[in-house]
Specification:
Helix 4 runs antiparallel to helix 5, helix 6 packs antiparallel against helix 7 and helix 7 packs antiparallel against helix 8. By secondary structure, this protein is mostly helical. The longest helix has 21 residues. It is built from 8 helices and no strands.
């Protein structure tokens, strides 16, 4: 198989197009990846974010659900370290969507899962925002501080 016929090649090309603002070409590249390997959660996540930015919320939500279900199915049979990173990525995107819609309880749920899988600064920061939105300011402050430390700040 040549380099141009690999999911990794098409995923990187999709990211490049997405960063350049070429949504149509990015979508085509991501769809090509998913034709080749429908299990790639990072591609599902990126395509969902692309759809969200284009106002295609229903399609984005369906893709996020597909990505979360895929991660759950793969958890028992795959390499957990790299899968945890991809699962945390799509959970984080789902959390961001909840925060954008002021759904703080839902965002708290997603961000806690992110922190369990991959205790990274973004998950902790999102948890802090969700907690603040729920008027749990003391907990929010602790989460934000820990999130900043994980970001190296």
């Amino acid at each position: 198989m040549s380099k141009e016929n690999t999911p990794d090649y098409w995923h990187k090309l999709g990211r490049q197009y997405q960063e350049q603002g070429n949504a149509k070409a990015a979508e085509e590249a991501y769809l090509k990846v998913l034709e080749m390997d429908g299990k790639l959660i990072r591609t599902i996540n990126n395509l969902a974010l692309l759809y969200l930015r284009a106002g295609r919320k229903k399609e984005a939500m369906a893709l996020m659900a597909k990505g979360l279900n895929q991660a759950y199915k793969l958890w028992g049979e795959e390499r957990k370290d790299s899968l945890a990173e991809e699962w945390a990525l799509i959970l984080n995107s789902r959390c961001q969507l909840a925060l954008d819609n002021d759904k703080f309880v839902e965002a708290r749920k997603w961000s806690k899962l992110v922190v369990k899988l991959k205790p990274m600064g973004t998950g902790l920061s999102n948890l802090g925002v969700a907690l603040a939105g729920m008027n749990s300011y003391e907990e929010a402050g602790r989460s934000q501080q820990l999130g900043l430390k994980r970001h190296g700040m």
